[in-house]
Write a structure and sequence with these properties.
This is carbonic anhydrase. It contains 8 helices and 5 strands; from the N terminus they run H-H-E-H-E-H-E-H-H-H-H-E-E. It is α/β, with parallel strands linked by helices and about 210 residues long. The protein is globular and about 55 Å long. The two termini are about 30 Å apart.
Length: about 210
């Protein structure tokens, strides 16, 4: 039923948040999405504040709408998006806001098949030609991930590069943010990396740091 909130309690631990997130993706993949927390009662209940159970740092791609692919609703997810989920100070500060001010127990880095930003970076690495404007900055930030994938396998596919970029991004969150690193060290928070498969809607775990199992 639309508006139904799956689970009797708000996920307060990384393991509970992870289970809730994956259950939502399962419903989406199986075409039994219930569209929870999208009714007027939920809207009214959030007027005084928010308490999301997951921060999702994902690519800006229009096919990667987090609330849809994880079957969530209002107030469930704190979402930060940049092309190629590249980290800059604003993105990192936004993720830290979820950790420090909202006590979100799970941080997700979300990449996807056939990522255009990763594809553009692969082209630049191969040809030496850089894109114009500020897109160049995106390519420069993704280049280390593409090079790392090529060191592992010189014939890496775009999707292999995407998975490596998700892993590199998730690791960098902990390296560059003492706030996030402390949350993981204290087991208050977990950081995971997922790749989203466009054909079947499945989100696949490729990186984890923190207690996501009960």
């Amino acid at each position: 039923m639309a508006g139904e909130d799956h689970g009797n309690t708000h996920p307060g631990t990384p393991a509970q948040a992870w289970a809730r997130l994956m259950e939502g993706n399962r419903r989406f993949v199986e075409s039994v999405a219930s569209h929870p927390n999208q009714d007027a009662a939920r809207r009214s209940s959030l007027a005084g504040g928010q308490h999301p159970f997951v921060t999702i740092f994902g690519c800006s791609d229009s096919r990667l709408a987090a609330e849809i692919i994880f079957d969530m609703g209002l107030g469930d997810a704190f979402v930060v998006r940049t092309a190629g989920h590249v980290i800059d100070n604003t993105a990192l500060g936004s993720i830290e806001f979820g950790e420090d001010f909202l006590d979100v127990p799970l941080i997700v880095v979300l990449g996807h098949d056939s990522c255009g930003a990763v594809t553009a970076t692969k082209g630049s690495v191969e040809t030496g030609a850089m894109p114009a404007g500020h897109v160049r900055g995106i390519v420069e930030l993704i280049t280390p991930s593409v090079l790392a994938a090529l060191r592992i396998d010189s014939a890496s596919s775009i999707d292999s590069m995407v998975a490596e970029h998700v892993k590199q991004t998730a690791a960098r969150l902990l390296e560059e943010s003492p706030i996030i690193a402390e949350g993981v060290a204290s087991q208050k928070t977990a950081v995971v990396g997922l790749t989203y498969h466009l054909n079947d809607g499945r989100a696949e775990l490729v990186y984890s740091n923190g207690p996501i199992t009960a």
